[in-house]
Structure formats: C-alpha cells, structure tokens
Amino acid sequence: MKTTMSPKNAKPCKESFEKPMLLSTLLTSISFYILMFLGYLSQSLFPPKIAKEYNRQGYPHLYEKFASFYSLYVYRRVRDCWNYPICSVPGAEVVLKERITPDNGWTFEFTGSKRKCINLGSYNYLGFAEPSGPCAELAIKAVHTYGLSTGGTRQQYGTCEIHRELEKLTAEFLGVEDAITFGMGFATNSLNIPALFSPGCLVISDERNHASLILGIRLSGATVRVFKHNDVKDLEKVLKYAIYYGQSKDSITHTPWKKICIFVEGIYSMEGSIVHLPEIIALKKKYKAYLYLDEAHSIGAIGRSGRGVVDYFGCDPKDIDVLMGTFTKSFGSAGGYIAGTQQFISYLRQKSYASKYAYAMSPPVAAQIIGVLKILMGKDGTDLGKKRIDTLARNTQYFRRKLAQIGLITYGNQDSPVVPVLVYLYSKIAYSVRTLIENNIATVGVGYPATPLLEGRLRVCLSAGHTKEQLDYALGIIEQVANDIGLKYSRLPKDPNPIEYEKIEINS
C-alpha cells in the first residue's frame, strides 16, 4: 500500500499496486506461450474454413496479420467470456441472453434463455441507468417535443434549446464559465484535440491514457512524450527536458515548442487509480504548461458533490485549462463535454470537428443528462443526488475492504469505484467469468493486450444502485472462486475486525 500527501490540498491518496509472487509471474508467462504455441499448431494443422478469405489472390491483408492470428487462435478460446448480449437496462441487475458455441468459439447460437445477473460490469456509477423515474420521463417528453434526432450538426441547424440548457447546466455544475457538448464520448477527445494542437506542439501523456486521447493526439500531429503512470517526479523530469531542449534533438538550436500540454485522466478505468491532481496542477503552473483533464470515469463518481476529481481534491476548476468528461457513465446517457473559459469554448464551437461534422446530440439523450444534473445539484428539490453519491462511496469502501480481507490483490485508489481484481492467468480469467455468470454475477475479464501480459484481471465496477445484500452475495461467490482456483495472492496484512457497512466513514 502506498500513501502520498498532496502539497496544498492535504488529502491522503491511498493506492495499492501489490506485485505478485515470482511463481505467479512465471506461471502466467509460461501459460501464455503455451496458448500461443497451440494457436500456431492449430493454424497449421487445422485451418478452419470459417476464417478463410476468398477471391483475394494478389491482395495484401487489410488487417495486421498477428492481430488476426491472436484474435482467431488465442482470444477465440475464451471468447464466450466477452461481448455478452444483454436485453435489459444495465442497472444494478442486468439480463443476459444465453448462448452456446458448437464449434469452440468460432460461432455462437442463442438458446432462447435469459439470465438475470447482479451487474458488476457496467459504468453505471450513480445508478441512473433506469427504465423509469424522473430522468426517463424527461427523455420521453423530449422525444415528443424534439424527435429522436435534430437531423444536422451543431453548426448546421442541429442546435436545439435543450442543447443550450444542457451546456449551461454543465458549466454551472463544474464551476466554470461555459461548456460545449457532443453526441459521442470517444469523439469528444478524438475530434477536439486536433482542433487544439498541431505539429510543433508537445503533448506529455500518462502512459495509461485512454485510446480516445491517444487517437486525438495522433490526429493532431503533435509530438508526444510519455511519463510513467501517475508518477509526478517522472512528469517533472519530462517537462524539464522538453523545456530545455525544445523541438531540437541537439543542444544547439533550442527551438521552443509552440505549446506544451499535460494529458491525464481523473480515474483510470483499467487501473482504478486516481490522478494526483494537486501535484500536477502545481507542476503545470511552475512550468507554464496547459492541462487537459479527462474525467470520463470520475465525473459523478467521486467528490463530495459528485463533481469529479477536482471536487475530490478540493481544487479550483479554473486551474484546469481543458475539462473533459462523458455522460455515458455516471449520467446513464451518452455523449461528452468540454468545459472551460467562455473564450475557449467559443473557439471550439467554431473549430471543433465534432461541432462541424458530427450530428448533434440526440434530444432525449440530452434530456436524460439534464435530469441527472438537476438531481445532483439539488434543483429537483430533493437530496436524492447526495444520497446516491454517498451510497456509491460507501459501496466502494465496503467492497474494496472486504476483498482485502479475502486476500485478493486489488489495484487502485481506495475511493475508486473501478476495482481491478488480479487473477493473472488466462485460464483463471475464463474460469472466473464463467463461474460468476453461472452464479448470476456479470463482470468483465480483461487480459492482454488490453492490460500488460502479466496483469490479467477481473474488473468490477460498483454502483450506487447496488444493495449491501447484492454486494455480500457477490463477495461470497468471489471468495468461493478464489478458494477453488487459488486467487489469494495478497501478502498484505489483513484487517481482522468485521467490516460493518453502516459504520463506514465516507468523505462527505
């Protein structure tokens, strides 16, 4: 367990990234290469007809060869653990459509049966993914008023009154001057970053940043330097080097960068870690760099008022130059936003590729978000928003502490509702996911290449919609699985005292 202290906002930031024993590392490596060997053997001796291309003589492959091999001969063996189709709202519970594979993962057939599971796999942090309630009613009303689509981009007759209301509420919620919204979270990064940076600019990016950030940076043509995950000392080292040498590779010309921007996320969705924001703000001020903060997983999920990592650390939102987030998780909707000064947002309204070319956010989607924002801000006249924020924080603390008592290695910050549970081996990922589903628990297994080769895991996502009874049932099944296949890798001291849900203290 590692504990750091912020320089100004003195808030303990407890994180754990416990390393496995050497034996576990060796077994994970050996098992992976056995899978690869069996894959190449199968490809050579038993090439399946279903994966064969026809009428492509003389054509190069449209896709990367190794990626195709890995997908067909390694991932296929455990493909049943992923891409499960659902037929319900992904709330605290979710209904899966059951399926079978008659040919070892090449194809699937639906059985016609359905299975209701406790949902530990969706980013429904505040539990607003609901089939009914005030937010759903607002969405239905918006369908009757505005229709399902505006039929145009924001710049070409696609802006409705509801978009303006949403942007005004978003800016008020975040404590900044203005905000602009978009219909897709991924595109919020990938289509706006190229409007902000160009060749001659430098982006300093956390090594664990999301694919949408990476794509947007590549499209911009900016130079990229990477710093170690959440390592403030390494970030400062990269900043010093960049400022001293500039764009040149030698120490003679010293051509300065047009601008330097630090890219970080609030909560990292694979690691469960929370950015060390106060220290990074201090560095960005010291070296006169810009700061781009992606709050896709942290907005709504942490902070006294659910306002994300800025609220969590008590920082000033005006210290972040680009505040980005999505509505796809805590808000139970879709789309994303960028917020900041009025001058900056006005520039984006003119120059953003998403504003120019992508269709405007669907009106019922915007209405759902407006409903959630009003609840979180107390504008609905209730304290329901505060209760949901507190329940999520309590569920997170309870679940993480109970997993530690079981003896499992979990990654990330103790306040992060994203809880990676390390299982390492591919076979153990598959067994865990399959067994949990058989016991009506839906969660996500994650392995290489989405994670480092030696860090395969289950990724649990907690929600304010989960009851203590649901969490206790899930914990019981997880402990059974851990006993069956040996997942109790942790060597940290265990708390011998019973953990009482109602007595858990939260930062409210």
- State the low-pLDDT regions, or none: 1-7
**Count of beta strands:** 16
- Biggest pleated sheet: 7 strands, mixed
The backbone outline, from C-alpha atoms, is globular
What would you say this structure looks like, in words?
- The protein has 16 helices and 16 strands.
- It is of the alpha/beta class.
- The strands form 4 sheets. A 7-stranded mixed β-sheet has the order 5-11-10-9-8-6-7, sandwiched between helices.
- Helix 10 links the parallel strand 9 and strand 10.
- The protein is globular, with a radius of gyration of 24 Å.
- The model is unreliable at 1-7 (pLDDT under 50).
Features:
3-stranded antiparallel β-sheet, 508 residues, 16 helices, single chain, disordered N terminus, alpha/beta, 16 strands, 7-stranded mixed β-sheet
Secondary-structure blueprint of this entry?
Blueprint: E1 2-5, E2 12-16, H1 22-45, H2 65-73, E3 93-100, E4 109-119, H3 134-146, H4 161-174, E5 178-182, H5 185-190, H6 193-196, E6 202-206, H7 211-220, E7 223-227, H8 232-245, E8 260-265, H9 277-286, E9 290-294, H10 309-313, E10 322-326, E11 336-340, H11 342-351, H12 353-357, H13 363-376, H14 384-406, E12 412-413, E13 418-424, H15 426-438, E14 441-442, E15 444-446, E16 456-461, H16 468-485
Parallel strand pairs: 4-14, 6-7, 6-8, 8-9, 9-10
Antiparallel strand pairs: 1-2, 2-12, 3-4, 5-11, 10-11, 13-16, 15-16
Helix pairs in contact: 1-2, 3-13, 4-13, 14-16, 15-16
